[in-house]
Amino acid sequence: MSTGEVSRKNFPNIFCYHCSLKNHNHFISTLKKRTLLIILGNLTAFGPFVTDFYLPCLPELTSYFAQPEAIIQTSLTASMLGLAAVQGAAPIVAPVLGGAAFSLSCWQGAFILLGIWGICLWMSCRPLEETLPAAKRLHMPIWESFRCYFTVLGHPIFAVMTLLLGFSTAALMAYISASPFLFQNHFGLTPMQYSLCFAFNAAGLTTGSAAIVKIRGMVRATTLSVNGLLLTSLTVALSLWLEGSFLLFEAGIFLMLFCVGLLTPVAMTRALNAVSGNKGVASALLGATPFLLGGIVAPLTGLGNLIVSTAGVILSCTLVCFILWLLLPLTNRRTQASAVHAERS
Q1: Is the pLDDT assigned to residue 3 strictly greater than 50?
Q2: CB within 8 A of 127, min separation 6: which ones?
């Protein structure tokens, strides 16, 4: 038998081998991509889970530690500062699971579960490799890289949109930190009922983020979201100050979160579009600023009368957003003038 005949007879087997090897490599590549997607998804969701998971436990913590609400709410500040330093579905699922964990065990059980999840994330991230090629990495001392932050903050549009995002998130965090006491102590809901209401309101947040595709133009979307945020926060404040019904308060909160969800992608997009370089630094500032302002605002709702302070903090944050929106035309003219001056130079 000639060599050619052997090759022809073995060709089907060789072809099948190469096909199986190709399919195996494709399977391994797909598996790695899906594993990375799951890890990144969990890392993204861990931030909302940290703040939302143990919210049903806050009233219990005040009596357990015999401390006022403002002191207990500083635990949210600590988590926000940590998220700011290291910088979906998570806001909806987290309070429900947290309420279930609290109902089945105790407030310590919620923190134990969060700790186990954090350890699992840490262990899963260890084998990950750097994906950015070495040629595209920045080679400079860490302290020199901080100069890029001042360059990015020098863009007026970026600074205004980042603050707009930060204070809208601060209004959200004011509601989040006070919500266990408002829903359970003021309106008399059980921890599980509160968790379900919180999840429903979080659905308004995600719905707003999805509805942005129906609005044409970033300027129009900014106008609608900021004005809607001010009107809905005023409704929430009046319903608390005037001892209104729970349904009025709940409707105002849902619509307020819808406006926050609508504003968030708009502010991020306009801020990043305003920066020509250092996109990573800009993204880091966009991620850290909301957590930083949210951490500052969280315990303020527990100072004095919870009803009065919560309404005041939420309304103050949205008023700042409205003022920043009024400054946007002036900021745009300044940016255009700078661009014309640079082009002439």
Answers
A1: no
A2: none
